[in-house]
Design brief:
Number of strands: 21
Oligomer: single chain
CATH class of one domain: Mainly Alpha
Radius of gyration: 30 Å
CATH superfamily of one domain: GroEL-like equatorial domain
Shape: elongated
CATH topology of one domain: GROEL, domain 1
Distance between the termini: 37 Å
């Protein structure tokens, strides 16, 4: 509302809320810092876990920053922005979400101090952009080029991603599984982890029993017990259509004057189904995966021909089967040819629990999709294993794609900070203060690593600065001994892409928050029950 000549002018509807200036900036920064503090203690090899409990009582136990942020019930719009930035980090490179959020929080914390000193947010944003560009050039100089065929480097990358996670005890074997899986699906210099690697979780057994299947595992059973349980040298038909008697529409009419006509009609339908099954057998198929239904009549026909079949296969599983077996998804069984069939050394239904079976498609030749089978004692533990494997697969893929790595353990952050501080001394404007603040913000990573390891962060930071000042650019924190060490020699390395994306995500998030100086919130409309619906029913929806 504004006044002019004594008359009020209504700008916003009644009930709208507006905050401007320093107040809104302070609240936005506090919200972003609160998100960063929530994941701070999970960073590094000595990071702690968080337990997230939803309103139904189901719990998620994890130290994966991305999962923690997804599970948090966040309301503040700026906090949601920070979560979206973390999501972008995860989608882009699959790792570094916790680091990105912590750095973003530190950048905003430093910015708040600068704003209190009278420095305009736009000046701070400009300084941060200059510092981020300088940091990227430092990373580029630090980066070590590696070959995608160097399994030792790939192993170190995978193990670094697993360190501090629940699967760390088996990181030797699991890192090899991740490398084999990534190399199997490497195509045109890219590793499509989300669409070409399936992680299958089986409750029971030991983590050490986990293995790589060069094929696809389907969480389903064959449609009939009369079918063979095992098919060797499988020839696989992937059918997008249906193998069942067609159901008539509600407006369909059939005029039958004699009982014999009814029998002829049924026989005619069965004859069509018989032709479809015969077409599959003629093409050489001894395994059929159908995306739609397989009726009882078709089940018997397939079983008599010794064909193993499964129905209602998920769309994503059908695509994986096509990539793994080399088969082509066909819509009409009558049109299938031998060239459309995929192949595998073995297709077998196996018991994985007392009451549950799965179909294993194994031994595919040059598969472009694979499955990783993980075992664990509980669903919560298996979920955490899956998240850890996801991170490891992504970082291996990042290295296979870019072929460049940097030292971990906070080494890259300290090296960048040292260079940025020197660069800041060459500037004459107020941006100098923002550039210096950027350097201090990224040094939060080795400090947090030290805190989470129970070490004195000041002592560790002084030690690391001294090492980098004497030219040891790969010196980082070895949490196992509580001292600085050469991270490359220790095998603690990370993909260059992850570090570059962290800088991009964190600086962009800080810039977005700092540029906001006006918050206009619409009045919340209380939703009312529909006619005939009780308030209690509504709240349960």
């Amino acid at each position: 509302m504004a006044g002019m000549s004594g008359y009020p002018i209504v700008v916003l509807k009644e009930g709208h809320k507006r905050e401007t200036g320093r107040d809104v900036q302070r609240k936005n920064i506090m919200a972003a810092i609160a998100v960063a503090e929530a994941v701070r203690s999970t960073l590094g090899p000595k990071g702690m876990d968080k337990m997230m409990v939803d309103n139904t009582g189901d719990a998620v136990v994890t130290n994966d920053g991305a999962t923690i942020l997804w599970e948090m019930d966040i309301e503040h719009p700026v906090a949601k922005m920070i979560v979206e930035v973390a999501k972008a980090q995860d989608d882009e490179v699959g790792d570094g979400t916790t680091t990105a959020v912590i750095v973003a929080g530190e950048l905003l914390k430093k910015a708040e101090s600068l704003i209190d000193k009278g420095i305009h947010p736009t000046t701070i944003v400009m300084g941060y952009k200059q510092a981020a560009a300088r940091a990227r050039s430092v990373l580029d100089k630090m980066a070590i080029s590696v070959s995608g065929q160097d399994r030792q480097i790939l192993t170190r990358i995978a193990q670094t991603a697993m360190t501090g996670k629940s699967i760390e005890g088996q990181k030797e074997s699991l890192s090899q599984i991740c490398i084999d899986a990534a190399l199997a699906i490497l195509e045109d210099g890219k590793v499509d982890v989300d669409n070409r690697i399936k992680i299958v979780k089986i409750t029971g057994g030991r983590l050490a029993d986990s293995n790589l299947n060069r094929g696809v595992v389907l969480e389903m059973e064959r449609v009939s017990n009369e079918m063979p349980r095992q098919i060797k040298e499988a020839r696989i038909a992937l059918l997008d259509g249906t193998l069942e008697l067609k159901k008539l529409g509600t407006d369909a009419k059939i005029t039958i004057s004699h009982p014999e006509s009814m029998m002829s009609f049924k026989k005619g339908e069965e004859a069509v189904l018989e032709e479809q099954v015969e077409s599959l057998a003629r093409a050489g198929a001894n395994v059929v995966f159908c995306q739609k239904g397989i009726g009882v009549a078709a089940q018997g026909m397939l079983a008599r021909r010794g064909i193993l079949a499964a129905r209602r296969v998920k769309d994503e599983d059908m695509k994986l089967l096509a990539l793994a077996t080399g088969g082509r998804i066909v819509g009409d069984a009558m049109q299938i040819t031998p060239a459309d069939l995929g192949s595998a050394e073995l297709v077998e239904e196996r018991k994985v629990k007392k009451e549950k079976s799965m179909i294993f498609v194994e031994g595919c030749k040059n598969p472009r999709a694979v499955s990783i089978i993980v075992h664990g004692g509980s669903e919560v533990y298996l979920d955490e294993q899956e998240r850890a494997l996801h991170d490891a697969l992504y970082v291996v893929g990042d290295v296979l794609t870019s072929g460049r790595i940097v030292a971990g353990g906070g080494a890259a952050e300290v090296e960048m900070a040292e260079d940025i501080r020197h660069y800041a001394s060459t500037l004459s404007g107020r941006e100098q203060l923002a550039v210096t603040a950027f350097a201090e913000a990224i040094e939060a990573i080795p400090k947090v690593l030290a805190e989470n390891a129970g070490l004195d962060p000041v002592d560790i930071l002084v030690s690391l600065r001294s090492a980098h000042g004497s030219g040891q650019k790969n010196a980082g924190l070895d949490a196992s001994i509580g001292k600085s060490a050469d991270m490359v020699e220790k095998g603690v390395v990370e993909p260059l892409r992850v570090k570059e994306q962290v800088l991009k995500s964190a600086s962009e998030a800080a810039a977005m928050v700092l540029r906001v100086d006006d918050l206009i919130a619409a009045k919340r409309e209380e939703l009312k029950p529909k006619p005939g619906q009780s308030p209690h029913d509504y709240t349960m929806m």
